[in-house]
Every structure is written in structure tokens, then in C-alpha cells.
Write the C-alpha cells for this entry.
Amino acid sequence: MENKIQFKAPIEVAGAGPAGLAAAITLAHAGRRVIVHETQKEVGHRFGGDFQGIENWTTTEDALSVLKKSGITTDFTAMPSRNGTVFDGAGKPYAINSDEPLFYLVERGPGPDTFDSALLRQAQALGVEVRFNSRLRHMAGEGILAAGPRAADAIAVGYHFETDMADGYWAICDNELAPQGYAYLLVMNGRGTVKSCMFSGFKQEKRYLQRTIAAFERLVGLEMRNPQPHGGSGNFRIPDSAYSGPHPLVGEQAGFQDTLWGFGMRLAVSSGVLAAQSLLSGENYDTLWQRELKPQMKTSVVNRALFSVAGSYGYSWFLKQLVSTPNLRESLRQHYQPSWPKRLLGPWARRRYESQRKDLTCDHIDCHCIWCRGECCAHD
Ligand SMILES: Cc1cc2nc3c(=O)[nH]c(=O)nc-3n(C[C@H](O)[C@H](O)[C@H](O)COP(=O)(O)OP(=O)(O)OC[C@H]3O[C@@H](n4cnc5c(N)ncnc54)[C@H](O)[C@@H]3O)c2cc1C
């Protein structure tokens, strides 16, 4: 049986992000030969030392335990984040306290302790061949497309920096700083990231970023040494089908994202694992992701539509509700679960929220659209 498996042609994966590597790891666990193509010279190139949170509220089970059960490593630095502060537009603080971690703060990029490097190490230890500086242009046989965002539905702009500030997280909900989004500040082990994460007003990004920096300086004494500009985009879309021809699309290439706040890493990993399982078992990938991931993503579109009309009073009201609940993690989990009011609001929300991705035919392979030519990402 083992020998028979080894004679099969290798499965190709386009993209060594969390989605592509999770798919490769799952396939390699099952004894399949896998070749991952990564267009950059290293993993996590577009993030280069960014701090991001692995959200811990969409499942009752802890996020790291879910990763382990799926066969995915947790051998990366992850700071459990329980207590923090969120401000409303008037600068009023709301203390966030949770007995259990609300998210795990991780580093992205090619460094030794990052989420990306841990996934790479696990994949390589299982025999996956990762080819860097290799942009996949044609996929002939079995394969999975995991090439990241194809449009900008939201952007996050800011800085990475060194600091003497204590570890922690802070956010501000204020359309004057981050239209329809939120500004955030994350600090871990003497380094930090500050960003304005906006869902509209991209052309005025510099102005929003300046206001974000000034607000964090005023509210929490932000101190930055050696600030380095950093930014990126996210593509949020629920496709009818996540196949391009015979090939499953995973992670943000499929548009899989948390439309409310952009916590896309878990969806990237989960979709990568599901796509690999579909290749191994012959089950239809659309059936799998629509059963496992779609209900949460549909609810997140409704949450996004509500958040985008909230305005300052709405944000303050939301924050008041959030901090007064005895179990914040559970309350957030329920916000992401389908419910009859959110089902009723679905058609309205879908009309209000529309992805910027117009060319649905772009599968990244043999394609010459601006995203595929790489002209969208000056920092690449
Ligand atoms: C600034 C910022 C902050 C974020 N913060 C959070 C957060 O706090 N929590 C969270 O959960 N999510 C966050 N996200 C979202 C999260 O980073 C993404 O959802 C996640 O990385 C998507 O994973 P992916 O594997 O689909 O794509 P990516 O991570 O983008 O990986 C795709 C890879 O494919 C490669 N590639 C592209 N084309 C080809 C090709 N033709 N051939 C070979 N390789 C190719 C790319 O170089 C890239 O390495 C953030 C995003 C940004 C931009």
C-alpha cells in the first residue's frame, strides 16, 4: 500500500503561506509526495516580522489544540492574549478581560520563531519539497492553489518597530482613524506593530495612519524606535465554488477570510487541510468547505455589514456590550455563529458588502492580470 502511494505523481501546491503549507503537511502525513512552489525567496515574505493574532473565539476548543488535532504544528512563539484595552472614538477605554486567551499573538515572516517558519519546518521534515523563487505558472496534474489575496477589500498600513513598552494589545474603533475598521497596536518582547486597518478610504491611508499614531501616542504612550513601514491587503469573498478547473482554491486565493475583522489565518489553515483531505479521499472540496467554513463566513459578512453602519455611537454601544458579558470569548463565538436574526439580515448584508474582486476567473495560473504580474505589491 505504502509503495503504491509513493509511485503516484507528486501533488503541486502554489504558495507557501499558511493555506498552502497546511495542505502540503496534510498530504505528506498521508504519504503523498508534494512540491510547494513559492514565488518569494522565503516564507512569509509579505509580512516580514508582522505580529498577527490567531483568533481563539470561533471554536469552543482552543485554537492551538484544534491545530494540533488537525496535524498542524504549534512549534512557534504564541503569546496568549487575554487582557487588553479597546477605545472608542471619544478616547473612552474599555477594559477587555478574559480568563481564556482571546487570541494567540504570533510573528509572521521568515524568522526562526514565526508561524510561517514552523509550518515550513514541519512540511520539510515530512519530506515536502519547497521550491523558493518558483512562481507556478502552469499546473498540469493534481494540485492546490494557495497564492494569497487577489484583490484589496481591506488594507492595513502602519509600522513595525522596536520599543520598551510592555507586552499587550490595544485597539481603537474610530472611523476618523480607520474607516469602518479599527486601529491596533500589538507589542511582544520589545517589538511592536501599529496599524490602521481600513475597509474604505484607502486613498487617504497616510492621513489615517498619522491620526492612528497620534491617537496611540496620546492614549497609551506609544513609543517607536527604528519604525519600518509595513502594510498589506486582504481579499474577503465567499465564492460559489472554490475550484479553478480541477484544482481546489484555498486560503485568501479563494477569498476565505473573516469579513468582520480580517482574522484569516485559521480559515487559511482549515481550508488547506480540507482541500488536501478532498484530494486524498475523493470527496468534493466544495461540499467540505461549505459544510465546515461557510456558515461562519456568512455570519461574518452580516457582522461586517452591521459594523460598517455602526458609526461612533454604534462602536461605543458594541464595546459596552462586549465588556459587560461575563464570558467574552463565548460571547464572540456566538457573534460568529449563524442565528435566525443574522440569517434574516443575510440578503441585506450581501447587498451592502461586495468584494472588490471583479475578475472571478483569475486562478493565478497562466494569468496576466495585475495581481499575477506582481505589480500590486510594490514591497515584493
Ligand atoms: C497587515 C495584515 C495583518 C493581518 N493580521 C491578521 C491577524 O491578526 N490575524 C489573522 O488571522 N489574519 C491576519 N491577516 C490575514 C492573514 O495574514 C491571511 O489571511 C493569511 O496569511 C492568508 O494565508 P494564505 O496562505 O491564503 O495566503 P498568504 O499568506 O498570502 O500566502 C500566499 C503565498 O503564495 C505565494 N505566491 C503567490 N503567487 C504564487 C505563485 N504563482 N506561485 C507560487 N507562490 C505564489 C506568495 O508569495 C505567498 O507566500 C492579516 C493580513 C494583513 C495583510
